[in-house]
Amino acid sequence: MAKVTEDKSKNIANGDEAICYYCSSPSSECKNSTIYLTALENIVAEELTLYRFDSKIMIDKLSKIGIKYNVIYFYYKDGKITNREYSNPVRPKPKHSEETKRKIGKANKERWREKHEEKSNDHTSNKD
User: How far apart, in Å, are the Cα atoms of 47 and each of 6, 55, 74, 75, 102?
Assistant: First the structure.
């Protein structure tokens, strides 16, 4: 199992902070390397057959939790080991008004045009 580190730098659109745990090993070793705390708490509650997450019950029953790829391993104090697959919830894309879609499209076209004009100017030369 790879070392998991807490990262509090993820911000949600409404300004709230989402606590996320990630693998500190290289990405070649950790494929699905992050899990949000809320997702982890929900999975722990489900594993322990709790109505909702309770850290005291978790501490009483589990000695540790490990994550490798997209599988969470639960190590119980009585020696039992179980696992569950997981995935982080997919964040829905924002719904834009037609006016906003036009503005985004126009801005994207302008950025594309500027980028390609720069490239074409880089390849021109002044021959005497």
Answer: 22, 13, 8, 11, 47
pLDDT value, residue 3: 46
pTM value is 0.56
Task: Give 78-119 pLDDT, tens digit per residue.
Answer: 999 999 988 766 666 677 788 888 888 898 888 888 888 877
SS3 per residue for the chain: CCCEEEEEEEECCCCCEEEEEEECCCCCCCCCCEEEHHHHHHHHHHHCCCCCCCHHHHHHHEEEEEEECCEEEEEECCCCEEEEECCCCCCCCCCCCHHHHHHHHHHHHHHHHHHHHHHHHHCCCCCC
Q: Rounded to an integer, what distance in angstroms lies between the CA atom of residue 105 and that of residue 80?
A: 55
Q: Alpha-carbon distance 13 to 58, whole Å?
A: 30
Distant-in-sequence, close-in-space partners of 28: CB < 8 Å, separation ≥ 6: none
pLDDT band at 60 (very low <50, low <70, confident <90, very high): very high
